[in-house]
């Protein structure tokens, strides 16, 4: 098996679509002879020209020197037949997601390359074991899963099939580095790492809206402002396309034997069946105009003409809540029977807090402080609440320069629910050994632009808080969807860091 740093290292790329072009480009930029093959006549030659144009634009923008661009162009070749891949040291398959097609292609590649040649698939959903099943030398087959657009997205998943040799996985990691990607090694499993780990953000957002706790716009605003995600789950689904994220959700759900943690919601299917696929069709969860520009819709901000509250009582002693009140200029006193009563529950809904503390549910206003409240604050009330109390508190918060999102009663508000589910799925991936804790966090940050990895998010919530949120959701809904992992429970019980090895 040739060393990756060899000057004559040769990479074959089969499939000249968007992904194949991107893989060929980063391969050539890594200084490797790169051979493109596509079954469609002229497609490989066209891909070479397209890549050359991209390199020229990088030079124009000052991102690459003329010399480097010229060198990369010189690395790219194209062939019309599989036999043209005979000299390759690694072949990366990037054709459409069809198992029969991939198995047939891998057999053809095996017939022409040496037994030392690594054959990798860029598949995002088909198990590597299924592809390798048709191969003569199964140990040299692995996954090399890039993310679109490849030249921009730095992550590459190295997928180890059941029979993938250690040297093959190690070499593919080095190959990824030579392509200036950041590799993470992942076990062969449905959705691999990123497509599995990304399920919780969208599916729990969907569940919040399905439960009529909040609107898509409210969920997105909360997750952007209070948890610093670049996009909320609904605008993210519209960007990737409902025709993409809905089928992937089903594949992962079925692949994990219908684990309720991974279940999507009926409203997801309804949008898919209606053909409202997001930006590409002009409408999904939101409406879009020319060029995919969002059309302004319902505001996530709570508006009220109520007079700001001057004084509140606290449902229970809470130094963090008391400090928040002081920060927004809200005096805390004894309950006079008329003032709003504040609480900052972790996991609980307003109803549970009222029953547990004896606070008057009609005047109780729950505030989510387990996130960043510098620009937006989420408030919720119990059924039957006097909304004038909520509005008075909201007016005070707005007067402090913050926005307010008012939601219906829910264990864990919005931010706590979604964050806890994202983090719990991360601990599940660590628990089953899908990848190392560090690689799980790294992959989710690089692959999905998360502000922190799921295990880091668990630490940020606080492990005991994390367990409390999930247990409260499980108790309220009766669903195993919210069961905390054993990985999380043990580390919370022992007061250990979330990434402590088993």
TrEMBL record:
One of its GO terms (molecular function) is (3S)-3-hydroxyacyl-CoA dehydrogenase (NAD+) activity. Keywords: Oxidoreductase. GO terms for biological process: fatty acid metabolic process. The keyword Transferase does not apply. It comes from the Bacteria. Residues 191-288, 412-492 form the 3-hydroxyacyl-CoA dehydrogenase C-terminal domain. Residues 10-188 form the 3-hydroxyacyl-CoA dehydrogenase NAD binding domain. It is an enzyme of class 1 (oxidoreductase). Its EC number is 1.1.1.35. PANTHER family: 3-HYDROXYACYL-COA DEHYDROGENASE FAMILY PROTEIN, 3-HYDROXYBUTYRYL-COA DEHYDROGENASE. NCBIfam families: PRK08268.1 (NF006124). This is 3-hydroxyacyl-CoA dehydrogenase. It comes from Hwanghaeella grinnelliae.
